[in-house]
Amino acid sequence: MAKAFLPDYENCSVNFLSSIAKKFKVDTGHKSLECVDKILSKATKNIVVILLDGLGEAVLKHHLPEDSFLRKNQIKTISSVFPTTTTSGTMSFKTGLTPLEHGWISAFLYFKEVGSALNLYLNTDAYSRKPIPQKYVAETVLGFSNLFERIEEKTKGKVKAYGVSIMEARDLFGNITQLTYDNLTEMCSTINTLCSLPGQKVIYAYHNYPDDLMHKFGPYSDETADLLIDIDAEIENLAKTTKDTTFIISADHGQTEIDKVFDLANYSDIADTFIMPPTGGSRAFNVFIKHGKEKTFKSLMKKYFKDEFLVLSKKQVQDMNLFGINKAHSKIDDFLGDFWIISTGHSNLAYSTLYKLPIKQPRGAHGGLTKEEIFLPLIVYQNREK
Asked: Nearest Cα to 263, choosing from 294, 312, 305, 291?
């Protein structure tokens, strides 16, 4: 089996976000990063956090030279949260909490409140992919407290909080002021304009690239290389022309190349051990097993896949703190299945149903425990010009 690289919840996004929170006397319950604390002690009017979806350290180093803006301003390597998915990672950016705490532990989870497995962000049925009649299920049931909104509240509005994202990624709850954009150039222009306004600001900006493109062409493709050159130039121009601002740039997860997909529905003896189709994501399946079939399930996974996947029991993932530390969200016990099947290599998982929807094999994917998915750059740049 390929080595599994585990998340480090004392050196991940929640920790550098805790440094920002600490500056404004907001307690996240997590350790801050000393190197970020030191930088933030040199005050600037604005703090801008930019999440570049999928920008793992491996991809950054592969495509950009050492003297590129993003690489030369990387101050350390940090860990992704687990699962290494946009759902879990972006929610940790928004809340400053681990997936264990905020409850968004995967892209697809079963909600007993509506009797369906859902795509949390899209609010669609996980298997039919059709919208469900109940709106905003995950937001309503799980809830979340936006960290940037908490900063605005703690400072009694002295520090204004903003969110900048594509329309599909905007928050549906809370009072944070949100602006949307259509492309990276427009995102950068919006941030620059906000930072030029009077008063202190904390800004969270989300960009869905390079992740979207890497799914299609692969993380090490020429298309990804060209895109990262453009991203590097756009972010450099933004940072160097936006005065009195600290930029903190990182990612929710990285990506790895995919060479095959295994549809577990084609393994009838394995499928027969399931209570229901798996939830989770394409590189980390969450499975509920029929009582008394646990040993059979583990034996069959070993028979067909040898060491292709890491198979962990519910107790193991809890004992390992795989999803995070501190107090678990009240829904975690509902969500966690009996086992998690996790990819540590280049294989994806799938489960076809009678909906007969096509199973795609992306060129790049994330959600597992490879070093490409786990290790992320932490990039900081301060423009102290007034």
From this structure: 305
Instruction: Classify burial at 138, counting beta carbons within 10 Å of its beta carbon; exposed 0-12, middle 13-18, buried 19 or more.
Output: buried
Tokens of 340: 């998690």
Closest by CA position to 377, among listed 22, 13, 68, 34: 13
Question: Domains of the chain, with CATH numbers?
Answer: 13-103+136-256+371-383 (3.40.720.10), 258-363 (3.30.1360.180)
Helices (H) and strands (E) in the chain, counts: 16, 18
Cβ neighbours for 153, distance < 8 A, ≥ 6 positions apart: none
**Residue 144, pLDDT above cutoff 90:** no
Whether the Cβ atoms of residue 62 and residue 55 lie closer than 8 Å to each other: no
Calpha distance 376→356 (Å, rounded): 36
Please give the model's pTM, rounded to 2 decimal places: 0.97
| Cα separation, 308 vs 299, whole angstroms | 13
Amino acid sitting at position 282: S
Q: Which of 189, 169, 191 is nearest to 50 (CA)?
A: 191
Distance CA 13, CA 96 (A): 7
Long-range contacts for 226-234 (Cβ within 8 Å, ≥24 apart)? Answer: 228/59, 228/60, 228/63, 228/64, 229/63, 229/64, 230/184, 231/52, 231/70, 231/184, 231/207, 232/64, 232/68, 232/69, 232/70, 233/69, 234/184, 234/185, 234/188
Q: Which H or E run includes 313?
A: strand 309-313
Q: What is the C-alpha radius of gyration for the chain, rounded to an integer number of angstroms? A: 21
Instruction: Sort strands 284-287 and 74-79 into parallel, antiparallel or unpaired.
Output: unpaired
- For 104, which DSSP code? -
What are the DSSP E strand ranges found in 131-273?
159-165, 177-180, 200-207, 245-250, 256-257, 260-263
Structure tokens at 34: 């000393």
pLDDT in tens, 326-373: 999 999 999 999 999 999 999 999 999 999 999 989 999 999 999 999
